[in-house]
């Protein structure tokens, strides 16, 4: 999984505006497609209760979900993580086999 790429924005790819005095961002169809495509096999994980170290969480998730290909875990702060899978089968298995409990939480 190559996560080290640059997303190039064409002129007009991003339009900033205000809707009822609230800032808004509109993406071109191309940019929107790239963003949605990149997130298609991604799930947001929220830890409830006590904190778990990054490596411990990564190992526990790997043991619970047993993906056929490595996944990418991204810490996005405040107990939230993104888990990006490399294939649809692993993603589907994770969704269909939950409720996931880690260390009693």
Offer a few descriptive terms.
2 domains; 30% helix; two-stranded antiparallel sheet; alpha+beta; three-stranded antiparallel sheet; 105 residues
Architecture blueprint of SSEs:
Elements: E1 14-19, E2 22-27, H1 29-39, E3 42-46, H2 54-65, E4 72-75, E5 80-84, H3 88-96
Antiparallel strand pairs: 1-2, 3-5, 4-5
Describe the structure.
This protein has helices spanning about 30-40, 55-65, 90-95; strands at about 15-20, 20-25, 40-45, 70-75, 80-85. The chain has about 100 residues and is an alpha+beta fold. The chain folds into two domains: about 10-40, no CATH class; about 40-105. It has a three-stranded antiparallel β-sheet, with no helix packed on it.
Please tell me the total number of domains.
2
Kindly report how far apart the N and C termini lie: 30 Å
Overall geometry: extended
Order of helices and strands: EEHEHEEH
Structural class: alpha+beta
Which percent range fits the helix content? 25-40%
User: How many DSSP E strands?
Assistant: 5
Protein name: DUF4283 domain-containing protein
Domain DUF4283: 41-104
Pfam families: DUF4283 (PF14111)
InterPro entries: DUF4283 (IPR025558)
